[in-house]
Every structure is written in structure tokens, then in C-alpha cells.
Specification:
Main location: membrane
GO molecular function: ligand-gated monoatomic ion channel activity
InterPro entries: Ionotropic_Glu_rcpt (IPR015683), Iontro_rcpt_C (IPR001320)
Shape: rod-shaped
Strand content: under 5%
Structural class: mainly alpha
Helix content: 55-70%
Largest sheet: none
Subcellular location: Membrane
Number of helices: 5
Pfam family, one: Lig_chan
Length: 153
């Protein structure tokens, strides 16, 4: 997001709204980048032996069993305890899903609510300020219109 050199933001209210919108753009781009990175990383982490062996190979079940026996065997448990210590109270790994949730407008409803409220407040303050500063001109204009309406009757 860039502003032209010719366009200068002179109002503090406009600066306030521009700063909020810059943060919104920053958060949206960072969220999109994180989501995309997560999706690409998860695909690489999924264990597949089908890419090593031809499709339908009889070796896949044997290799899978061998890998499971090594990773779930007593030696692996001893190595994990030596390096990582006892298990903590973490959630069960089997309930965790490898699929990442996609971003949607519902993911950012709070962000858009903040932007909408801030923009609305800035608009209300600006309108109130303009009406207050030009109240004499507005009162004169209203009295002329009112006089015109009374003269036509």
C-alpha cells in the first residue's frame, strides 16, 4: 500500500484510518503467507512409502511394519526418555489433524469489525467537526430555505 507523493494526508483522522488499514493489510498478508507455508509444509511431512515403491508393491506393508516396530519399540522409548524426558500433559497426538484450516472472511471478522468501527468513528467525528465549524453558514442556508418556503405559501 503506497501513497502518491502528491497526496498528503493532513487530517489526523485520515492518518488514524490509514494506520489501521496498514495494520489490516499487514495481518492479512502475514496470515495468508503462514497458511500457505503451513499447507505446503504439511504435505511434505506426511509419511508415504508409495513414492519409494511402485504402486501395489508387496514390500510396502513389510516396510511399514518394520518402521512401526522401530519407532514403537522399547529402544525408541529409551532414546526418547533419554533425550526428551518423561511425557508432559500434552494433548493426544492421534487427535491432531494434519490438515490445515483454510482462511476465510470468518477468520478475520474481528479485524474487519475493528476497522469498520474505527472508520465509522472517524467519519462521525469529521462530520461533527465540519458541521460545528460551518454552523453559521448552515444556519443562514436553512433560514433562507425556510424563508423561501414561507414566501411561496
Amino acid at each position: 500500500m503506497s501513497l502518491s507523493v502528491e497526496e498528503k494526508v493532513v487530517s489526523n483522522l485520515a492518518r488514524f484510518v490509514v494506520i489501521i488499514w496498514c495494520f489490516v493489510v499487514l495481518i492479512l498478508t502475514q496470515s495468508y503467507t503462514a497458511s500457505l507455508t503451513s499447507m505446503l509444509t504439511i504435505r511434505q511431512l506426511e509419511p508415504t512409502f508409495t513414492s519409494v515403491f511402485p504402486k501395489g508393491s508387496p514390500l510396502v506393508p513389510d516396510v511399514s511394519r518394520a518402521v512401526l516396530s522401530v519407532t514403537e519399540g522399547e529402544k525408541m522409548v529409551q532414546i526418547e526418555k533419554a533425550w526428551f524426558g518423561e511425557k508432559t500433559n500434552c494433548p493426544d497426538d492421534t487427535s491432531a489433524s494434519l490438515a490445515s484450516s483454510s482462511l476465510s472472511l470468518n477468520s478475520f471478522w474481528g479485524l474487519f469489525l475493528i476497522v469498520g468501527v474505527a472508520s465509522s468513528i472517524a467519519l462521525i467525528i469529521l462530520t461533527s467537526t465540519l458541521v460545528f465549524e460551518h454552523r453559521h453558514t448552515l444556519m443562514h442556508f436553512v433560514s433562507e430555505i425556510y424563508g423561501y418556503i414561507l414566501d411561496r405559501r
